[in-house]
Amino acid sequence: FDLREPATVHAAVQAAGADHVLHLAAQSFVPAAFSDPAGTLAVNVGGTLNLLQALGAAGFGGRLLYVSSADVYGAVAADALPVTEAHLPAPRNPYAVSKAAAEMLCRQWHFTEGLDVIVARPFNHTGAGQDERFVLSGFARRIAQIMAGTAPPRFDTGNLQVTRDFSDVRDVLDAYMTLLDAGRAGEIYNVCSGVERKVADLLHGMLQAAGIRAEVVTDPARLRPNEQLRMVGSHDKLSAHTGWQPQCRFEETLAAMTAWWQAKESGNE
Fold it and tell me: How far apart are CA 20 and CA 226, in angstroms?
């Protein structure tokens, strides 16, 4: 259903009779947020408001986990890494602004309406089946195409020297389930691996694992202005409050992504 339509949201909430709500619905692609900020705000903020009002109207007494984004932190100095939840948000794109606003809206509902709310701030995460617009899945698809002989051995990329904190989506989902069960109401939690990885190293590792060589060319059109050069988070609070720890080996994550794209490209997925 469309979160932007209050009547539809109210009907869905009434029909569900949920014990808990995991709120993941969003316009989550940053370039799309720049091209359509109004649409992004309508989904991410207006849609969240519609959900909160629908939960109130339904007499919902369970827990709402709002999935925000580590993008709300904005530019973080190298000496402030790893990022903790105490770091003040300073969003630098419409997507991050929408997530920060929706966070505050959810917590306001906690403070004034008594709703049991937890906010998760996931860092980058990936896995088999992710949209190719996201960097590692895009790499995996091109590798699958090169292996199949349907694309030349060339990558046109943005800045590969940036670092990011990547997690396997299965670890992230496990963190969400753990927070629904054991998180503390009203709190904000980073969900991350705590490992800083350079994108160039990840691409090199994926190529090496696939046994192929390719030309890598920086495409100026793919460079983002004022891009964060380094990023890594701390999951110490999440681990201390719930006992959660990441479990997946990231090399296996990357291999699974490439295998998924190979199957999809061959028509077997």
Answer: 38
- Alpha helices, DSSP H, located in 17-161: 30-35, 37-41, 47-57, 94-113, 135-148
State the sign of the Cα–Cα–Cα–Cα dihedral 200, 201, 204, 209.
negative
**Which residue's structure tokens are 């979160």?**
3
Give the integer Cα–Cα distance in Å for 84 and 167: 16
Mean pLDDT (whole number) for 141-156: 96
- In tens, the pLDDT along 35-62 reads 999 999 999 999 999 999 999 999 999 9
Higher pLDDT: 109 or 226? It is: 109
Cα(4)–Cα(242) distance, integer angstroms: 33
Q: Are 72 and 100 in contact (CB under 8 A)?
A: yes
Average pLDDT, the chain: 96
Bridging pattern class, strands 163-164 and 197-198: antiparallel
Do 151 and 145 contact (CB within 8 A), yes or no? yes
Q: Which pLDDT does position 29 carry in this prediction?
A: 87
Nearest partner of 238 among 79, 71, 104, 122, judged by Cα: 122
Separation between Cα atoms, residue 220 and residue 230, nearest integer Å: 19
Place of tokens 């007494």: 61
Asked if residue 269 has pLDDT above 70, the reply is: no
